[in-house]
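Usage example:
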Amino acid sequence: MILPLLKGLILTIKRFFNPNAVVTQQYPEERPKLPSRFRGLPELQIGKDGRERCIACGLCAKVCPSKCITVEGATDKITQRRYPKVYELDAFRCIFCGFCEEACPVRAVILRDTFELSTYQNKNIFDKKQLLDLTKKRKISF
Amino acid sequence: MKTINLVVDDKTITVPEGTNIFQASLDNGIYIPGLCYHPKLSQFGGCRLCMVEVTERRTAHRFACAHPVSEGMIVKVNTPKVVRYRRSVMEYLLAHHELSCPTCDKAGECSLQDITHELMLSPSRFNAVRMNAPVVRDNPILELNRNRCVLCGRCVSACKEIEGVGAIDFQKRGIKTYVGTAFDKPLDCSFCGGCLAVCPTGSWQDRTLEFRGRPWEFKKTQTICPYCAVGCTIVLNTKSGSVRRVTSDDYIGINEGNLCIKGRFGHEFIHSAERLKTPLIKKDGAFHPSSWDDALEYISKRFQQIINEHGGKAIGGIGSEKCTNEDNYLFQKFCRSVLRTNTIDNLSNLRSPSLNSLMYESVIRGIASTSLKEIEHANTLFFFGTDMTEAHPVAGTMARKAIRMNNASLIIANIRTISFSGTAKNDIRLTYSFGSQIPFIHALIKIIIDEKLIDLKKAESSISNFHELPLAFDTFSVKEASQVTGISEEMMRTTARLLTKSGNCCIVCGRDVEEDPLSRDTIKALMNLCVLMNASSPDTGHSKASLLFSRSHNNSQGVNDMGVVPEFFPGYSTTSDVSNRENIEKQWGVKFSDDIFMRESKNIFELARNGALKGLYIMGENPLVSYPNGKEVLEAFQKTGFIVVQDVFLTETAQLADVVLPTVTFAEKEGTFTNMGMTVQRLNKIIQPSGVDAKPDWQIICEFAKKMGYSYSYASPKDILSEIESVVPIYSGINYDRLKRKEFYWASSVSGSRNKSAKYLLNIVQPESLEIKQNKDFPFVLLTGVSLNHQGTFSRYSNALVSVSPECFAEMNRKDAQKMNIHDGDAVVIESSQNKVTLKAKVTGKSPEGIVFVSEDYEWIPINLVRTGVYTPVKIYKETGQI
Ligand code: SF4
Ligand code: SF4
Ligand code: SF4
Ligand code: SF4
Ligand code: SF4
Ligand code: FES
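Running the assembly step on the lines above writes:
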């Protein structure tokens, strides 16, 4: 009966000293490796012209189950284009379901890997500029 | 009417004969998809979607909108064959469609989208080329995107049939067909937005919306238009507490979903940045913001001081044509019982002082129309001295409906040649010469008698003083009248014959008549005409001819009903009558001192100019620019020591005030408005005032009264209306909650309440003409009128309206212009003995020679400071410098 016990203990000790078997990540020094389908904060994408892709159709706001998106459309006086004058996302309320990404007809919202959303304030609303900045930092546009 | 029974989708329905299957199903809640059929419009049958299976003698496929019902017919809406057909029609429609739903403001209320969804159409089998036609944005209000058009023809019909303009039509043929203006010129129409309202797709877009919301985000609440006296029901679409657009509902209100440019696109003033934000107190010539408490404290102290020193008599009050009945009722109650003055008035009464008593007289004698709808039911329409299109656009639409549905005859008489789009089979347009309106009406009466167009025997027996008539007309000859009026005898005879034709006749008495110095006699003459026509028709308690009096603003009728006039307590009971006074004293629990009812002059501005007024309380009016003699008002203000103005904007009048109190707009308050057809309709509070510390007028008055030591315990306009219900006899039976569902017609309950003989009594007047003394220095007469695109203060703060018509023109006759070498667009100076203004000339054939016409409704053009009265002699010369 003692034998299996020792066997187990050996395995434990082996694991304990094996540096390759450590699962705890040294966050924030160490960045987590996220799965490719990870759903972080919905981010606004930038189009070829350097402006937001969003056309203020409001479908994301409509579909959002937690009602955390506010879109206010407006007409661009020069191009007559429809654009979001206001685009706000309440990160406190978002449940990262990804519906908004799915609803968007122009692929202007994508949930990428932004997950560090803690804040000292009692609200955490991302406005259009902040959401676009997230994408700008990634230097991707299409 | 004969009715027909038929079965639609296993449901037996009964409808009147002549209905088409589409309408029959619609009325019975059975849905048939269709894009081109609209109940208000003539049937077109262009979209081919409404195919149904119809079994009459045999089974066949028919278009529901084009096929009349027949007895025993069996209709099936959704057989597999029909659905297959419908799907392929939709596929064709969608083949070219740009499908830009995400950026299309129609998405969410688009019939094309709905039907696509309902038929579950997947990607099309066709690979057609998209049209890629450029979007037409040639005007500030409507945008036309032809790529979304399904050529249903609704807009074309609406423009032609409802608005009578016909500005748009199908252009080109075959696959190249599109909707547009002739020669692709910029859209130049009345901008009623009818096309926008009927379009099943997103081809027409409201540019005042500017993508600021999606249909599913809007909260829609109905309310009453704040502009003219027609009182259309509008539906405000709000999102996050702000008004984004105005739509209409075909099934509510007297307007059946028709609106004019002001109602549909003039809503931007609600959120104007220029609104008054806080109470302002003037110190050393400059306004300083203050708190409500301080402002009211200050006002009440000053008013109290005036009362102590000079008595309440020294305070004057001006009520508002734009405020609700409740506001106005409370205003006059406050003035009479707290300030203790009877020197109160409103601009409508100041401009046409004889109208109220005559209007009330004709109501109780059963001569007046009891609702605007009478226009729609008339067989003969007589517009006398009114420019329907400009003054009451939707009433004009009702007239066109009468022409379309009842084949009504139309007679228009005016000093100017006015345009009224829409032609009747019998369509008479008359221009009588300046000042000759009474001879004209008399000539009509004379012809009616001479030619025995009515049953004279019957008239003689029912009209007790009929014998006076021949006497009075002894010396009057039609020939002379024809010379005076400038209308040929033949024309007058035709007019008289048309008027007396069988069927209902609706006579609209316009502002040009009501404000004329001879208005009293003219209206009496018109009443005589009605009496004659009514007396001879079989008396079924229903008048053949009725008289409708024009009013200008949304509540011009209500402010007079509520007794904001020196002559009447609420409900037209005269203030000179002691028993009326006692009655009111009892109801309000006050005691009037008799001397307040006796003033040397009725005109409040005259009293003020004579120094009789020390204080003035003005609610929601801008008399400086809306009273025919601006200079008198200015002098009156200068003589008055202390002026309080309550308004939404800092108007010209408010700028002269000592204290200005900010009030709310129609969207931010509740209450009732009474339109010119004496229909009381309810206003709904839709949004909270945002960014401004404004209060509804009634609330201000309540707080004001409290400061003066009186307590008014009204919690809401509902309480005020229930007091009105008990105090004002003509409003008895009104109920605030019931108004939400149904409007209240006060005139119908009062109509004909005086005894029969009064109904048929002539009130003969002399056929005088108005003479304006020819003046060598000022050879022209300045005539003013209304404008379609502007009215009151609100329209000037609505960008859409200002951008459609930014400029006021001086309309002159071609001959006059030629003489002075003035061309279209030249700057001309109009100078009267007291002031001058520079305007651009518009050379037309509309105004007769010697008359220059300027619209009054461009408030920023101080035309009323030039005027010295209703008709002002002016001189005109070309401006040499730059404007
Ligand atoms: S992820 Fe879900 S909850 Fe979050 S914004 Fe999108 S739709 Fe809303
Ligand atoms: S669905 Fe896409 S395009 Fe539409 S409002 Fe949202 S982000 Fe913008
Ligand atoms: S008209 Fe209708 S179907 Fe066409 S783009 Fe607009 S919403 Fe979509
Ligand atoms: S613009 Fe609209 S209403 Fe006019 S034809 Fe096209 S789809 Fe019909
Ligand atoms: S201004 Fe008059 S006609 Fe136009 S929508 Fe308003 S109430 Fe109707
Ligand atoms: S609705 Fe009948 S053809 Fe269009």
